[in-house]
Amino acid sequence: MRLEYSRWPVIEEYFKDNDTVLIGIGSCESHGRHMPLGTDMIIPGYLMDKIEKKSDVLMLPVLPFGACDSLREFPGTINLGNELLYQLMSQVCNELYRHGARHFIVLNGHGGNLKSLDQVGFDLRRKGAIMAQLNWWLMAWDMNPQWKGGHGGGEETAAILAINESLVDKTEIGGPLEMHDLTPEITASGFNTSLYKGVNIHIPRLVTDITDSGWIGPDHPNTATVEWGNEMLDTTADYIVDFIEAFKKAPLKTEAGVGK
Q1: Which helix (H) or strand (E) holds 93?
Q2: Whole-angstrom Cα distance, residue 147 to residue 130?
Q3: From the CA atom positions of the chain, what is the Rg in Å?
């Protein structure tokens, strides 16, 4: 059930008997030279298409922009920042709350959104509602550790291949990942981490300081296949359908803060 395609009397009827909503959110940012900027919005949108066939939950359109400050140097990246994203999501959720929503499920495609979404979740909980974040790429790791990946690596590339193979330019995948170390002794190990004497240290750097292409992770994009993507997305969508039904039963807080 899509909010944008529904008439207001239909939504009024929905909230008489239901209080669960599914909100998609992504980002517009670099995912390597081989992948589309909209990877993080395309994948949640595709999952929602699959979920819609098996669930009657009310779905909102995928929000296409997120918080991606470290990737701003790549052309085409649109960064809302943490504060603006928090304000935007707060307003959307507050309006849904006003209409009757109490169980909020956010299908998220971008790790940079987590900080803002957490704060919205805390706010909702304090007013007697509850939010679940479904970070699809992390969920996929738990479902099958072989699917574990980084940013723009094999995991996300497999997903996009399954959705629309023409969106991936395989000629731009390139060779082994080359990360730029901070010093010969302090070596890059991730987006915001560097390794010194076997210990990871949090050192925030711009992605362009670390990798020229914008992808990073243990899963090289050249390992991605359509078959991997199809299995992963089907499994994830089916899991979310089951989770929605289970989450509907999650207790809400009373004014005293006690679950009912």
Answers
A1: helix 81-99
A2: 29
A3: 19
